[in-house]
Amino acid sequence: MRTSLSPRSAQLSKLSTILAVDAYFTKRKFIDPICEKTDLNIVGRLREDANLRYLYNGRQTGSKGRPKQYAGKINVKRIDKRRVTQEYEDDDVRIHAAVVNSVGLKRNVKLCYVEFLNTTGEVNTTKMFFSTDIIMTGLAILCAYRARFQMEFNF
Fold first, then answer.
1. In a domain, 119, yes or no
2. 61-77 pLDDT, tens per residue?
3. Contacts of 1 (CB under 8 A, 6+ apart)
């Protein structure tokens, strides 16, 4: 997948350092060149079958061999709320976030797991978003992605 953003990255960086993309563009062939050749951070939606792993933050054993990096696969249908932190909640959404490893992208990303609530406060649907900037908050990730979606109505 070729991208023509690299030559224009200096002009784009003056407008924003965030490039918001849809789930179709959540591919290593698209994300790697942008992250390596530009100053842009990518915000996007993850597919429902995304292959993600929790990062291991525990004490290393000190024995021979490679240190443990991952603490297991993430069940995207049922995320372990003990391993992700709730960052934001209002009447419409509940946002959980954590730095995780994306197997498909071969990099650590900031996961934003959003539970969309109905009028009674029960979870209606869930969506997963990500950012290549692991310092970004979950609310900022959701706002950047929503801004992308609003731009589509202009076209």
1. yes
2. 778 888 888 888 999 88
3. 27, 29, 30
